[in-house]
Amino acid sequence: MTMRIAIAGGGLGGLTLARILHRHGIGAVVYEREASRSARSQGGSLDLHPESGQQALADAGLIGRFRSEARPEGEEHRILDPAGRTLVHHKPQPGSFSGRPEIDRSALRDLLLDSLPGDAVAWQHRLVAAMPRPDGGFGLTFDGGHSADCDVLIGADGGRSVVRSLLTDATLSSVATLVELSISDADRRHPDLAELVGPGNLWCIGVNQILAAQRLGDGGIRVGISLRADDRHMDTYRSKRALLDMFDGWNPRLTALIEAGDSLPTPRRIEAMPTGTRWAHQPGITLIGDAAHLMPPVGEGANQAMLDAAELAAELATNPADPDSAIQAYEEAMFTRTHPIAEMSARVQAMMLSPTAADDIIRFFTPQPTEPAPTA
Asked: How many CB atoms lie within 10 A of CB 97?
């Protein structure tokens, strides 16, 4: 009998999993809440790491397409202080894919979607409940009344995962507030800002706050303001004037990034799961990506989600007759791999929004001299 696999969530992790399973001749249906691939913006760009995100794409047979879409020049990274002085400036080797090239999230998602059969994604299927069936597997209920059954359920449904509640009662905690703006067609409309940001990422580090900007493949700029988590209502951050007041005294060249935003700022709370979260294995169900180990957004989330997908797919392909053993093997390896990464991400997040962030980040990004070997 064919194993029916349901993947809740059509983000990068869920799509990578479906693609690699498909390459092994294992069918899966991805249930995605959005109405279509173009229903909403997919966010900014991300850097894919060779040992995780790029490895997953290699397993998916998509590394060539990735290289045609990625921007190795996007790895350029400048860190400034509030006066606009350069603290760190990292420039990649021109045209080199050996580091962590940038790719827009939308381009990466399209690349994955294009690699799947047309019926692999069920759009407009937001999972609202999953119930174990007496004979094994799960019954799924979707918003609007749709339902489906599966033998194996994989939660790739993000930080607010519905599937997670079947495995653990781990609670999320707020670690920061992120306010985002976008600037379209920057080269033509705001050439000074395009030059300031460059082809990659710009971080302006203050006391307990960061003003960041990221160049996108379509010529736009995504601006992000990171602040410590607090109890203020999100509406506080929807005003450019209020944001500019928070950066009073900063170099006007930097705060011009806020003024140039095309629309009102969009705030959201950044949450994380407790580091070291584990759950007792249950038959026919597991989690990948943010559903399994939601971390602060410091560069690991998408990469680890895609590696989760690759490792789970490999286990299922190796042992298709015993999916529970495959899931157990995946979970043990995933818990071991992600625990130190989650701890590191929490430390970096706290460091970036600390009063001494500028000094701490300079030390973090500056290679330390090695001690000379003792002489006899």
From this structure: 17
